[in-house]
Amino acid sequence: MMDSMKRGTETRTEAKQQQKQECATTFLNEGILMLLSGWHALQMAVNNQWGGSDSLQKSHHLASHLFSSLSKSYAPAPVEDLENLLHECMLLTFNTEIEDGSIEEVAEQLVGIHEEYLLRQSSLHI
């Protein structure tokens, strides 16, 4: 009887952990998508198809790449690395040189989103 109660408690705990994990992952994904959808320079590039007729798909690929990279990282992402990634993507993918300071702003906001994700992840192990 005690073993079945213990297993039941462990199962509920595992389910709660899984739910928290999913919430943290959803937070990261939605944060990235919202940030990129509000980035004027990227949206101009997409709307004007500066990356070709598949510019929208390219912006989705950027979001997926950011999510994949940040969700696998257990240390805060260096803002310079994110700035370089965004700059390279805009230049090579959308043939666009961004000089309005928005790359730095977006990179800083990504760092904040990632730090919140890491905080939510760490609360899973408490």
Can you put this structure into words, describing what you see?
The protein is mainly alpha-helical. It has one domain. It is built from five helices and no strands. The two termini are 28 Å apart. 21% of the residues are buried. The mean pLDDT is 90.
In short:
The protein has helices spanning 2-37, 40-47, 55-72, 79-94, 102-122. It is mostly helical.
Q: What's the gyration radius in Å?
A: 19 Å
Which structural class matches the secondary elements?
Answer: mainly alpha
Mean pLDDT: 90
Major beta sheet summary:
none
Family: Belongs to the TSR2 family.
Pfam families: WGG
Biased composition (Basic and acidic residues): 1-19
Protein name: Pre-rRNA-processing protein TSR2 homolog
List keywords for this structure.
mainly alpha; 5 helices; Pre-rRNA-processing protein TSR2 homolog; Pre-rRNA_process_TSR2
Layout of helices and strands, plus pairs?
Layout: H1 2-37, H2 40-47, H3 55-72, H4 79-94, H5 102-122
Biased composition (Basic and acidic residues): 1-19
Protein name: Pre-rRNA-processing protein TSR2 homolog
Region (Disordered): 1-21
